[in-house]
Design goal:
With 399 residues, this protein is of the alpha+beta class. 45% of the residues lie in helices and 15% in strands.
């Protein structure tokens, strides 16, 4: 049997197996599995058509690329391309599950302190998630799970222990284990998973230790995203208020040198060009590092981008995706909030990454049902109010 035929049959079996056990208890995980395998199934079918009976490696990226170019020229096969694009949106840029990502669920609890939600929704989902990871990846190295082969976002293919997955696991587990024993009934389970979770992979660069994209990866880049930065944002394991600020800073510099993203998008050029606009989170990482001047430059350029073909300014792009580029707008909002307010454990940091000569007034929510109101004008803190009052002890003004 041809290799590509084996890939089609094997993927079909996996999809059917997931469907056969589909029920409400693990609907999110099973849906995500099915969508991911369905995308692979379509890709293998396209390669089967393109190969025309010749044996081919179903996991060869260049062959996949050529197969898709071929399919796009055949009108009767274009439906495959359209279907694949829909699957890409479900399992690539977005996480498809029944209640949002586990990280967001835990953040929701930290802000609202709704114990019932934590015990009945967030923690059971987390347990299912880690059970899946533990049983899906059978390999072990020095007592740790070997996660792979997986993509490190869309930049590196067939990696082992990619940072987005490892950092996400560690961030979620550390958050859960930071809760009191009265909140986490099966704490021993999460402690055990934490002990077998891989460490963030590291390498040396310019005499500095930095986070690398994955434990094992081919340096050939397929996209312009920097997966190693997931350790800084959104998971904030490293940073100005996280562990090892120097390692975080040099990881940022290394990622920019490798990927070339430290520039604004220019409308009309190739959408695949590296930049800090669109869904790129370079500005958010700069804010987590407290780089106020860098944040100011990125924010001004991203806010100033406007397509003259659109009457409404906030259509933004196109940058990497279609207009309206909601990723671009959302990153502007997320970045600005990180510039004026960041929280780490019980501490609330005010103005952590705001340029010195900028004025700002805001009212934002913080964890533990907290509200922060602030006005900073002409280099002076004019107003700062915290609700409830007992949280004032946790405030740190970075000025």
């Amino acid at each position: 049997m041809l290799k590509v035929d084996e890939a089609v049959y094997d993927t079909n079996k996996v999809i059917c197996r997931n469907i056969s056990v589909f029920d409400a208890s693990e609907r999110g995980l099973l849906s995500q599995n099915i969508l991911a395998q369905l995308r692979n199934f379509v890709e293998y079918i396209v390669q089967k058509v393109y190969s025309n009976g010749v044996d081919t490696d179903p996991n060869d990226y260049q062959d996949k690329k050529a197969a898709w170019e071929f399919v796009k020229t055949k009108g009767e096969l274009r439906f495959l391309s359209k279907f694949h694009n829909l699957l890409q949106k479900s399992v690539s840029h977005y996480t498809f599950d029944e209640g949002g990502s586990e990280r967001l669920m835990l953040k929701y609890y930290e802000y609202t302190l709704e114990e019932d939600f934590l015990k009945t929704e967030a923690l059971p989902y987390a347990r299912d998630l880690f059970c899946y990871i533990e049983t899906r990846f059978k390999g072990r190295a020095e007592g740790k799970i070997v996660i792979g082969p997986l993509q490190a976002v869309e930049t590196y293919f067939d990696t082992v222990n990619p940072v987005p997955v490892v950092a996400g696991m560690r961030a979620v587990l550390e958050t859960i284990l930071g809760f009191g024993r009265e909140l986490v009934g099966d704490r021993e389970f999460f402690e055990r998973i934490y002990t077998i979770t891989p460490q963030l992979p590291e390498e040396e660069w310019n005499h500095h230790t930095v986070i690398k994209p994955a434990e094992i990866y081919d340096e050939k880049r397929m996209n312009v995203e920097a997966p190693e930065l997931y350790a800084l944002y959104p998971f904030q394991l490293l940073g100005k208020y996280g562990a090892d600020p120097q390692k975080a800073y040099h990881t940022f510099l290394h990622a920019l040198e490798t990927g070339g993203q430290m520039k604004p998008h220019v409308l009309g050029i190739n959408p695949g060009t590296p930049c800090y606009s669109g869904w790129q989170y370079i500005g958010n990482v700069a804010a987590v590092l407290g780089l106020g001047d860098t944040c100011g430059v990125i924010l001004e350029n991203n806010c100033g981008m406007q397509n003259p073909g659109n009457r409404f300014p906030a259509m933004w792009g196109p940058v990497y995706d279609a207009v309206p580029d909601t990723d671009h707008g959302a990153n502007i909002m997320n970045m600005l909030q990180l510039m004026v307010l960041q929280c780490s454990k019980e501490k609330i940091y005010v103005l952590p990454a705001l340029p010195q000569n900028w004025d700002v007034r805001f009212r934002l929510f913080a964890p533990r049902k907290t509200i922060v109101e602030c006005e900073y004008t002409n280099g002076r803190l004019i107003h700062l109010e915290i609700y409830p009052e007992w949280r004032k002890r946790d405030i740190v003004v970075e000025r």
